[in-house]
Design goal:
- The protein is built from 12 helices and 14 strands.
- The protein starts with a strand and ends with a strand.
- Helix content is 36%, strand content 27%.
- It is globular.
- Helix 4 crosses helix 5.
- The protein has 375 residues and is α+β, with helices and mostly antiparallel strands.
């Protein structure tokens, strides 16, 4: 049967692109389907401001008339300016277990990159580090998360077969509080920090308050992650877009913000209930009943997803990270959470990884960003 690669050029093609993973990955119990509506908005320039400083091409692989694979190509001008590169990113790669489909998709992205005068290709990642990054290479038996998608083992095998090599790895950690409870030494650190006049924890009481602080919070995160691989600065419109997206699913009781004497944000820790099981039940749709599963998951989940932590550089060695973490851990335990799972962390980001040493922690997944250079 004939294999063809076609660029997405119509609303119908985009619908096929967004829905294709549901056909490819539905048989894997570890896969967590994203919301179809959110995926479609991601690729609409009039709805997603990350297109303002990037050029995108989407490709589909067809076996005769049957779609068998997809991939996105992103030329991020923001990333290339920051890192001084001529690189194209690939992301949203999915394929049936057919190597020629993967070969055709990778080649389509490579050909487009060369036509744009680019010299290298990296991925999977998206417009920014807030999009899914990395391809799972270890821990295939574990449930995925809504921010770190699952892929079967043949995905990285196909990438390497095509010629991709390791660029950098991310690790994901699963943590549980010690059976004896939180170490009293760290509780004393928290108490000492709370008694200090230099800093206090700010309780977020409304989504409107969070929205007002969002620009300051993301500015801090941008500074904290400035030197982290793949991070690009966010525009005001991008911050607003991300804020709206996060506010729809986070529990304000699971967000910690530290401020200084002048009420300036100097630290933030963002976590949320794990919605992996809820998203599996929703099957990619909010309606008619998907929203019910998600709302129930917000209340019933006993696993906490550790998303982001950022601390102003002048406070990073002052105990602020421990204060944010221990305070939230106490609150989460009181709310009935029994374990947590980290978002992907760069393998060399030892500072953030070290925060998990206060708990019973194991690295249970690893994912990789690949590089093809030269094209």
């Amino acid at each position: 049967m004939t294999l063809t690669i076609r660029e997405v050029c119509s609303p119908r093609d985009l619908k096929t692109f967004v829905k294709l993973p549901h056909q490819i990955l539905h048989a894997f119990p570890q896969w967590v389907p994203p919301l179809l509506r959110d995926e479609a908005i991601t690729f609409k320039p009039d709805r997603n401001p990350f297109h303002e400083d990037a050029e995108t091409r989407l490709f589909l692989a067809f076996r005769d008339r049957r779609p068998v694979g997809r991939i996105a190509a992103i030329l991020s001008h923001a990333a290339n300016r920051k890192y001084g590169t001529r690189n194209v990113r690939f992301g949203w790669f999915d394929t049936l277990e057919e190597y020629d489909a993967a070969d055709g998709l990778f080649s389509a992205v490579s050909d487009w990159a060369q036509s744009m005068g680019m010299k290298s290709l990296t991925g999977p990642h998206g417009f920014s580090n807030l999009d899914p990054q990395g391809m799972l290479i270890e821990g295939f038996e574990h449930l995925g998360t809504i921010h770190a998608p699952y892929n079967p083992p043949y995905y990285p095998e196909y990438a390497e077969r095509y010629g991709f090599e390791k660029e950098i790895d991310y690790v994901e950690m699963r943590s549980r509080p010690p059976q004896s409870g939180l170490d009293p030494r760290y509780l004393k650190i928290r108490q000492r920090m709370e008694n200090s006049t230099r800093v206090r924890l700010l309780r977020l009481e409304s989504r409107e308050q969070t929205r007002r602080l969002s620009k300051e919070i993301f500015s801090l995160l941008g500074q904290s992650y400035e030197s982290i691989y793949g991070v690009v600065p966010l525009s005001d419109s991008q911050v607003e877009y991300v804020t709206r997206k996060f506010l729809s699913i986070i529990d304000l009781n699971l967000v910690n913000v530290a401020v200084d004497r002048e009420d300036r944000v100097i630290g933030v820790l963002i976590t949320m209930p794990s919605l992996s099981r809820a998203f599996q039940k929703a099957k990619g749709r909010l309606f008619p009943w998907g929203w019910v599963h998600i709302m129930r998951g917000m209340k019933s989940s006993r696993v906490l997803d550790f998303l982001l932590i950022g601390v102003k550089d002048t406070y990073q060695k002052s105990g602020i990270p421990i204060l944010l973490l221990i305070d939230l851990a106490e609150r989460a335990l009181a709310m009935g959470y029994q374990s947590s799972e980290s978002a992907p962390m760069l393998e060399n980001n030892l500072m953030v990884q070290s925060l998990h040493k206060y708990f019973d922690t194991e690295i249970h997944k690893r994912r990789r960003v690949f590089r093809l250079d030269p094209l």
